[in-house]
Design a protein that fits this description.
By secondary structure, this protein is mainly alpha-helical. GO terms for molecular function: iron ion binding; oxygen carrier activity.
């Protein structure tokens, strides 16, 4: 499982704290996957997806406000990545989750991990001109 480390720090305290929260949500999905206490994980999966969607909407708004405040030149392409992330979460197939819950959690984790490695390490670092 991907763990928070200081390599992810942008140096923008508010955004860094919000990124840590995204890691926490991913960790809760991982813990659910590994949990032996839930035979039916459907409701918990839905809670995690909704929390992830709600939190990323909040986080993206904050990040976009920051980008606008510094007149970030790649704002629109960056915002499109945010919009695509939310779109993917809004297209969750509830029936597919119910049919194979652990498989769905794995897919959700892969999605989050890929997002973190691609978006934070590549796209977000461009905001502060850190080369990756």
């Amino acid at each position: 499982m991907l763990k928070w480390k200081d390599d992810y720090l942008l140096g923008i305290e508010k955004i860094d704290e919000q990124h840590k929260e995204l890691f926490r949500i991913a960790e809760s999905a991982y813990n659910l996957l590994k949990s032996e206490y839930f035979v039916d994980k459907y409701n918990k999966i839905i809670e995690i997806v909704e929390e992830l969607r709600d939190y990323t909407i909040f986080h993206f708004q904050e990040e976009e406000k920051y980008m606008m405040s510094i007149k970030y030149k790649k704002f629109f392409s960056h915002k499109m990545e945010h919009d695509n992330f939310i779109k993917k979460l809004n297209e969750v197939d509830l029936k597919a989750i119910d049919e194979n819950q652990d498989k769905y959690i794995m897919e959700l984790l892969e999605f989050i991990v890929n997002w973190i490695s691609e978006h934070i390490f590549v796209t977000d670092f461009k905001i502060v001109n850190k080369v990756r």
